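Predict structure. Chain length: 675.
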Amino acid sequence: MKNSKLLLFILFLILVADLTQGQTWEFVGGPQGIYPNDQIFLKDGRILCSTEEGVFISDDSEENWTKGNVSKDFGAVYSLTERKNGEIIAIARNGIIKSFDKGINWSLVSNNSSLNDYGVRIFESPIDSSLYFNKGKILYKSNDDGYNWESIWTGEIIDGFTINDSGWIYLGVRYRNIKISKDNGTTFKRLPIPYDFSNTTISLLYPDKHGGLYFKTDNEIIHFYKKYNFFLIRNYHWTDIPLGVTSNGDLIFKYDNCIALYEYTTKQTRTLSCPGFVKDQFAKNVVIFGNTWIANFKYFGLYISYNGGRTWKDLNTGLAYKQSIAIEITDNDKLLVSTFDGGFWGSLYSSNDDGKTWLRKNPPLDPVFNEIVRLNNGNLVAAGSYGIYTSKNEGVDWKRKINFDIASSLFVSKNGIVYSGNNSKGIWISRDNANTWSSTSGIEDRYFSAFGESSEGRIFASSWYNDEGFYYSDNEGISWSLVTPSELSYRRIYDFIGKDDTLLAATPNGIYYSIDNGIEWNKISNIHNSCEKFSDAPNNELIAISPGNGVLRSTNSISKWESLGEGLNNRKVLDICFDKNNRLFAVTDSGIFRNDYYLNPFLISPVYAADKQPFNIELLWNGVNIANYYEVILSPDSSFNTNTRIISTPTNSVVVNSLTPNTTYYWQVKAFTVK
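Prediction complete.
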């Protein structure tokens, strides 16, 4: 008797819970609070904040930010100034821009490349409404509302600049003391302070509203008042800086990890509060509207106080999405996301509700985690600025295991050995779940940024410098051999992954593959853009991050790749991760996205178009964790209209009996979840 022939026609998923189908990326959200460049109160109490993403507006001093219409052609927006006539003028990356409607719409005023600078602002004279702006060694002036500018003073580098209520111009000139002009910049004289500041920089100048001046030297905060008199407010604390001045002339300043107030009349200092966001060199300024203060602490964002600085509230929600760097999902489906805040600093956020809400709790030293990896024992290991960290409680608490300037990458082999690349310190290896580490000999001076493993267990490591080739080890990292394949036009490799008997490499020039365990290489022809990271998919496919194409998936073989869905809108994808339900999360430079394509129950056996099958056959598919039961629909009719058999099962397999010989069967699987 002949065996039947079973044709596996299609698999699809229907969930009563109405889960998203197909390949469209859904925006999840993510940690909010992009780095604030500047913030101002308008005369009507409205708040404006400038960022790399443009200008944001808040009408109620709460968490309701809307984005102004700032053209991307202007680039990032730096400082903001409200003029007496209600106009707002701002310095952007590509020129000076202006708004006539309180920050909603913006137009270009001047695109002179010399008139854009990250660290300075435009001041308006209270005498004649002329505008002033300094950059480098030059002070500029405009008499026509900012459209044209002329140089009115040139000398040494200007580290500080301000104008007081009388129209007096102050310049903190590097190694040349403080210059003052009382005639709109026509002439400048040295400020008559009985102390020589010619060996220091003078910055962060604030008028005290009584004809005096607050300013910072390299290590001091000083109050110059009356004629020839000055008072030392703070000494030998370089991270302590002036932040702003109250309406009666008191100075708000950073004092250690606190916010303090120096009283103009008594010359006494008192601490106002010591909130958690006051750290190290992150202070920038405080702006005031009545008794409401807004503090800008750079990478830690904006905070608002309604009682003169005694208590503070986070003001970052709604202020754009942070650039996410790395993502890992724990065994309990907790999302952990590392964000880049600037410099060497970052934040670590967690979400227990699929990204709807986020909690920030930073590891010691506030590092940027470049990579977070789950170990074989369920613990976490992370690499980033300041070294390698581990966590035993799903990212709540972290302990620094090894101190490096930058730990750039992590890889856990099939045998559980952890490899890390560190800035110019070679390869470091842990054989006890990241508890202790040791370096490898012979390549200590190189910076390794990517690792991978072939199906045969050979470990690969790529150096940051693309002219060095890459290395491999056949003895779990004890010794390494150099490979310099001529086929790779870019020898720097971002990632490796083994698939069956093939090894793939992600490079700046696309994807390459090797069938001889990494010695000879060939390029996959239809991928021309850079690829930066691989991942295994639940249905035996491969996934790759491509900055020019979003996320790619291999279809029927490693040689054919296509885009995995729409919806990323040219965002830069930086990391991807599956949760236990096979939902794919992607972190980008502006938010987090999810794709539910791999929620589908994918075929395991029999394979497509299998023949010579037994009469009693087991149908097997991958399980969907959120499904309560499945329906298997079997029919010799490809439209499933006749002779259809429906079988319900709580598991991801079923045995079908009494198949008809010499018959092609089609089958579907539907997964159901009932809440």
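Summary: Residues 1-22 have pLDDT under 50 and may be disordered.
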